[in-house]
Specification:
2 helices, five-stranded antiparallel beta sheet, mainly beta, 510 residues, 38 strands
Length: 510
């Protein structure tokens, strides 16, 4: 292998290591043209996902669904598995390449290797597992080979009663070093935890910063939190500050190592759900998939820097963009959390919120708190700003009813292909193409596999046109409460662009 090829592989691998999302090994094929005019899109060969502990309620019933879409060019080998945090794989790689499954993962794991919680048999077919009660642990997962590109794991929990009762759902996340969570709270009625899961062989050191309506909240105990190797730590927000604030933004900054992070927001009266991290700070944001029967929508936003942000607020409806009356713009002061109650902004139609700068662009993070129902029959979910669907995005854990797919094209019109996978217990995949008009949101009753048995996954692929943003809503009836949970559909980053070499350095080889 010449030096150009070695440098190219090292660069791509270093980039993947920085993002903490996936690792790519370029093939060492004879005659490989490293100076190709166009960058090659190659499937990732290893990825990691982390699932937080689902609930402390004895009444909790949790289902995990693991799915990998079929990806061209992956070969025939590989595997995916989820294990309890702290449990060591019996066949952990000796070279320590996968930090989540290394040699020194702790005595308890090394002495008693645990069986995987979930192990899919083939791409294109979901596999499910379940747990009951409040002792279910956090999970650490890895996938390689043909199971790595687009690997998605959904954690869905039903809680029959008590604080946070209703439906709670979260997509298990890749480890990273920086997370923003607008929409958290230390209000007396709320019990919010930040769950930190460390997949690696060394401890991670994390700072948790809280930003309220007047700026950063003073907290010494949020600094230098240690998350031991192969473990998960839930941190109760109210223990980090003595201030009670209804709307907070949580910033998780990892000093060393990497973690998976998610906020579990539980309300005494309004149920609860998981709050996933907002997309990276940006001047323009899209928050897709507000349910058409939402009775209350609250926008929570923060600009991380010192500069103020002025944002236009638009709702993309089935008929086109709408400016909410009385909420044409929102002013976000630098370093301060701003909350705006939009009421029943969708007025019975599908909708997505689009935020754009009125003048100069200032990076912002944002999320929506959405409520369905009335009186003592209300339930809450959260919609963070998200990345576009891009090449492909996947939603796991769908059934024959109770799933709604919401797609919005805030700019140019776009065409997408939606594929329903085979069911976990049987069924035939089905695909359907949809056109999303410019400036609109379309709620889709997703296609179901032929002869469906069990649960299935939905894969959304952009065929043509402008960027598309998406979300999937699951609904259920819990004693008259309109229980629901919403997961956004960002690009799965299942492939990596291998850049072309600017020059042939092989002449330097001696």
């Amino acid at each position: 292998m010449n030096r150009t090829t070695l440098s190219l592989i090292a660069g791509v691998t270093a980039l993947a290591a920085v993002t903490g999302f996936a690792a790519l090994s370029a093939p060492d094929a004879p005659g490989t043209d490293t100076a190709a005019k166009a960058a090659a899109q190659l499937p990732v060969e290893r990825t990691s996902l982390l699932c937080p502990a689902p609930s402390t309620s004895d009444l909790a019933e949790t289902v995990y669904t693991s799915f990998t879409p079929v990806t061209k060019g992956t070969g025939s080998s590989g595997k995916a598995e989820l294990r309890e945090a702290g449990a060591e794989s019996a066949d952990a790689p000796a070279d320590g390449e996968d930090k989540g499954q290394g040699e020194d993962g702790g005595k308890s794991g090394a002495d008693q290797p645990a069986k995987p919680v979930l192990t899919p048999k083939e791409p294109g077919k979901p596999v499910t597992g379940d747990s009951s009660g409040g002792e279910a642990p956090a999970l650490v997962g890895t996938a390689d080979g043909r199971f790595a590109p687009g690997w998605t794991v959904q954690e869905t929990t039903e809680v029959a009663a008590g604080t946070g009762r209703g439906l709670q759902g979260v997509n298990c996340t890749a480890p990273d070093t920086d997370f923003w969570f607008p929409g958290a709270s230390t209000d007396a009625a709320r019990t919010d935890y930040v769950h930190l899961t460390n997949p690696d062989d060394s401890a991670a050191v994390v700072d948790i910063e809280l930003y309220g309506k007047d700026g950063a909240l003073k907290s010494g105990v949020g600094e230098g939190i240690t998350v031991p190797p192969h473990s998960s730590e839930p941190v109760l927000l109210s223990t980090l500050t003595g201030e009670r604030q209804t709307n907070l933004t949580v910033h998780v900054n990892v000093r060393s190592g990497r973690v998976g992070a998610a906020v579990q927001a539980l309300d005494d009266r309004l149920g609860g759900d998981w709050l996933a991290a907002s997309a990276d700070p940006s001047g323009s944001l899209v928050l897709p998939g507000i349910p058409k029967d939402a009775t209350s929508v609250r926008l929570v936003a923060l600009t991380p820097g010192d500069a103020d942000a002025d944002l236009k607020v638009r709702l993309t409806s089935p008929s086109g963009p709408i400016t909410p009356a009385g909420h044409e713009t929102v002013h976000v002061k630098g370093g301060m959390t701003t909350a705006v109650d939009l009421g029943d902004v969708t007025r019975g139609e599908a909708g997505s919120l689009v935020l754009t700068p009125t003048d100069r662009s200032v990076p912002v993070v944002a999320a929506l708190r959405v409520v369905r129902g009335k009186g003592d029959k209300q339930e809450t979910a959260f919609i963070p700003a998200t990345r576009p669907v891009g090449t492909r995005a996947t939603s796991a854990d769908n059934s024959g009813k109770g799933s709604t797919l919401s797609l919005t094209a805030p700019g140019a019109a776009a065409t997408v292909k939606v594929t329903a996978s085979a069911g976990s217990e049987g069924g035939t995949p089905v695909s359907k193409t949809y056109t999303i008009k410019a400036g609109t949101t379309q709620d889709i009753e997703p296609p179901a596999p032929g002869g469906l048995e069990g649960t299935y996954a939905l894969t959304v692929e952009t065929v043509s046109g402008g960027p598309v943003y998406g979300a999937r809503t699951l609904t259920a009836s819990e004693g008259g409460v309109p229980a629901f949970t919403v997961q956004t559909l960002p690009d799965d980053r299942g492939t990596v662009a291998v850049p072309e070499a600017d020059e042939d350095l092989s002449v330097l080889q001696k």
